[in-house]
Design goal:
Oligomer: single chain
Strand content: 5-15%
Number of helices: 11
Shape: elongated
EC number: 3.6.5.4
Number of strands: 9
GO molecular function: 7S RNA binding; GTP binding; GTPase activity
Order of helices and strands: HHHHEHEHEEHEHEHEHEEH
Main location: cytoplasm
Bound molecules: guanosine-5'-diphosphate
Radius of gyration: 22 Å
Helix content: 40-55%
Enzyme class: hydrolase
Distance between the termini: 13 Å
Subcellular location: Cytoplasm
């Protein structure tokens, strides 16, 4: 996804190589090229401005170093600032002191929440946890059965409304209610009863932001008191990623971000701006439809990947 950004940035920094000293004009020119590369990749303007200001300030004031030549020093500064924008340290899941740990997924329809529920379930299982998925997306036709398929593939049980209320079947974990808040509450109860130590709640999304979506997500949040609310965002949607994040931040609030569809060929820079704009860390990244196309998000590794 970040191939062209990566090419542009490495190109901009390459021009500095071989110079014994960097003049202010060199730094200004390189900063301009970096700025263009970021804007072209769809990184949002306020984030670009802050980033460039810091690069310039630090590069012009850089101490002479015995270990690094001036060009290497600028590369180091750009790398450090990029890691900073992406959140600095890797942010780990906050587990509840008294299990179960409740993880709620929120985001627009199509962001990849249901797919992510399976990936997270699989990931928690691999870490030795005993997750359960709770199907609270009762809006999108087929979302419940999609979660059941995803759960089966991941080997993780799914708590869902029974047939007649929505989808489900005999002998499955479930509840006879079509109210997502009730389903969420009952799912957490069931997790407690069956001693699952992680509950992953899939919620409904809309194609765009609307009040009812926000209210429903807030009601589920209030009813279940999640330890983590993960805002799931499709990195392919460009600048809308930032405005959607702001709307969810205000309407529901979240503790972390999951970037999805990083395997796409869109520019993706907007998604990289979400941390800086909302102050919430990017915790996971999804890069495909398969269970294993998923990882913890490491800001330093992403920065190194982008800088080539
Ligand atoms: P939801 O509406 O938020 O639950 O979104 P879904 O989980 O149904 O995902 C919407 C579509 O995006 C589905 O076709 C998924 O297979 C696909 N999808 C989800 N995550 C990824 C990803 O990381 N990469 C790609 N290429 N497709 C994804």
């Amino acid at each position: 996804m970040f191939d062209s950004l990566s090419d542009r940035l490495t190109g901009a920094l390459k021009d500095l190589r071989g110079k014994g000293r960097l003049s202010d004009a060199d730094i200004d020119r390189t900063s301009r090229e970096i700025r263009l590369a970021l804007l072209e990749a769809d990184v949002s303007l306020p984030v670009v401005r802050t980033f460039i200001a810091r690069i310039k300030e630090r590069s012009k004031g850089a101490e002479v170093s015995a270990a690094l030549n001036p060009a290497q020093q600028v590369v180091k500064i750009v790398n450090e600032e990029l890691v900073g924008i992406l959140g600095g340290e890797t942010r780990r899941v906050q587990f509840a002191k008294n299990p179960p740990t409740i993880v709620m997924l929120a985001g627009l329809q199509g962001a990849g929440k249901t797919t992510l529920a399976g990936k997270l379930g699989n990931w928690f299982s691999q870490q030795g946890h005993t997750p359960i998925l709770v199907a609270c997306d009762l809006q999108r036709p087929g979302a419940v059965s999609q979660l059941q398929i995803v759960g089966e593939r991941a080997g993780v049980p799914v708590f869902a409304p029974h047939a007649g209320t929505s989808v489900g079947g005999e002998g499955e974990l479930g509840i006879s209610s079509g109210d997502p808040v009730e389903v969420a509450r009952a799912g957490v109860e069931e997790a407690r009863r069956l001693q699952h130590d992680v509950v992953i709640i899939d919620t409904a999304g809309r194609l765009g932001i609307d009040e009812e979506l926000m209210r429903q997500a807030s009601d589920i949040r209030d009813a279940t008191q999640p330890d983590e609310v993960l805002f799931v965002v499709d990195a392919m949607i460009g600048q809308d990623a930032v405005s959607t994040a702001e709307a969810f931040q205000e309407g529901v609030g979240f503790t972390g971000v999951v970037l999805t569809k990083l395997d796409g060929d869109a520019r993706g820079g907007a998604a990289l701006s979400v941390r800086e704009i909302t102050g919430r860390p990017i915790m996971f990244a999804s890069s495909g439809e398969k269970l294993e196309d998923f990882d913890v998000f490491h800001p330093d590794r992403m920065a190194s990947r982008i800088l080539g």
